Amino acid sequence: MTDAESGPSPAEVKAFQEDFVRLRDEIGKEVVGYSTIVERVLTCLFAGGHALLEGVPGLGKTLLVRTLSRALDVAFSRVQFSPDLMPADIVGTQVLVLGDDGAKEFRFQKGPVFANVVLADEINRATPKTQAALLEAMQEHSVTVGGTTHRLEEPFFVLGTQNPIDMEGTYPLPEAQVDRFLFKLMVGYLDEDDLLEVIDRTTSRRTIEIEPVLRPERIEAMRATVRAVAVAEHVKRYAVRLAKATHPDSEHAPESVRRYVKFGTSPRGILTLILAGKVRALVDGRVHLSCEDVREVLKPALRHRVILNFEGEAEGKQSDDLLDEVLASVDEAALVKS
User: Fold this and answer.
1) Which one of 5, 224, 270, 303 is least enclosed by Cβ atoms within 10 Å?
2) CA 70, CA 171: separation in Å to the nearest integer?
3) Is the CA virtual torsion 326, 327, 331, 337 positive or negative?
């Protein structure tokens, strides 16, 4: 049976929808106004990837992650990144302990990465060596210390935050390491009504109780449902064509990409379009991925995977604007007919 013929059962789709909405609404009790950001963070969670949130201080990035961890019945840890943080502070280290029989032995003491949800706060303030230790764990879902490999407990989900201003004393993530994040989400300012609601929720006596709605085994089951969503051949080709159009040397690239882009998206970008699109299809109650799903997730999936050249940076071009032109340049109808 091909992908285009298979898919999750109606019961699985309905259960996925209900649990996704329950989790989203539970987070909404605490987090005001960022419904799209919350949905995309949850998309990363159920697609099996990680999310990078970028925004100026005080917008509620940390609150969102903390609330997510409370709405999930999972282990949570937060790491405040700083220049003096060492890899062992993240993954753990061997410590010398005195055994019951009086003999000394080395035992592995787990670091904060051994949790289901890990908040890497201001990840760009740690040195490249420490960043690499976390990003390796993100990719491999394991850490190796003293020649022994330790598996991380599933589900394993990292949310990194970074501040786009105040770059003094920071170490920007290399492009190859940013690629490890499924989505890069830009957290902007709230509108006036949302800010008024923030005041009411945070400066009064009202207390908000967040109830855990999903256990680890349910998260894993929902991830399996995502993988079961069917993908027609023309939709896969559409995702590939969009990704190819971000490469300046591609015949499908628009003129702006040829002029301003140094490197286009990696194959991970294509996989992200498919997996994240599958989550969107399930939330919409469908068992098949559509081209519209792919278009909806294009910017968070690829904005950090399109690298501008010198001219693009000098002229202040934004990858989101270039991705708009990529979307306009790829003809979906022609792929369906072919």
Assistant:
1) 5
2) 30
3) positive
Q: Of 194-208, 221-235, 262-276, which gets the smallest average pLDDT?
A: 194-208
Q: Provide the pLDDT confidence category of residue 3 given band limits of 50, 70 and 90.
A: very low
Average predicted confidence (pLDDT) for the chain: 88
Structure tokens that stand for 115 in this block: 């949790």
Q: Please state, in angstroms and rounded to a whole number, the distance separating the CA atoms of residues 169 and 267.
A: 32
> What's the length of the chain?
338
Looking at residue 168, its pLDDT comes to 59
Could you tell me the pTM of the whole model?
0.89
Tokens representing 337 are 């007919």
pLDDT at residue 67 above 80?
A: yes
Cis status, amide bond into 155, omega within 30 of 0: yes
- Per-residue pLDDT of 105-141, as tens digits, reads 777 888 899 999 999 998 888 888 888 888 888 988 9
Distances (CA, A) of 287 to 20, 155, 226, 279, 298: 15, 23, 9, 10, 20
* Rounded Cα gap, residues 98 and 73, in angstroms: 34
Closest CA to 278 of 1, 51, 36, 49: 49
Residues 6+ apart with CB under 8 A from 298: 242, 273, 323, 326, 327
Q: Report the run of H or E that residue 92 belongs to, with start and end.
A: strand 92-98
- Coil, strand or helix: which one is 26? helix
Map residue 256 onto helix, strand or coil: helix
> Which residues lie across from 145 on neighbouring strands?
148
| 288 pLDDT above the threshold of 90 | yes
| pLDDT (0 to 100) of residue 325 | 95
Mean pLDDT over 209-214 rounds to 89
* Nearest one of 235, 275, 259 to 4, comparing CA atoms: 235
DSSP state of 196: H
Helices (H), the chain: 10-28, 35-47, 61-71, 87-91, 128-140, 175-178, 192-202, 216-228, 233-244, 255-260, 267-283, 291-302, 310-314, 319-329, 332-337
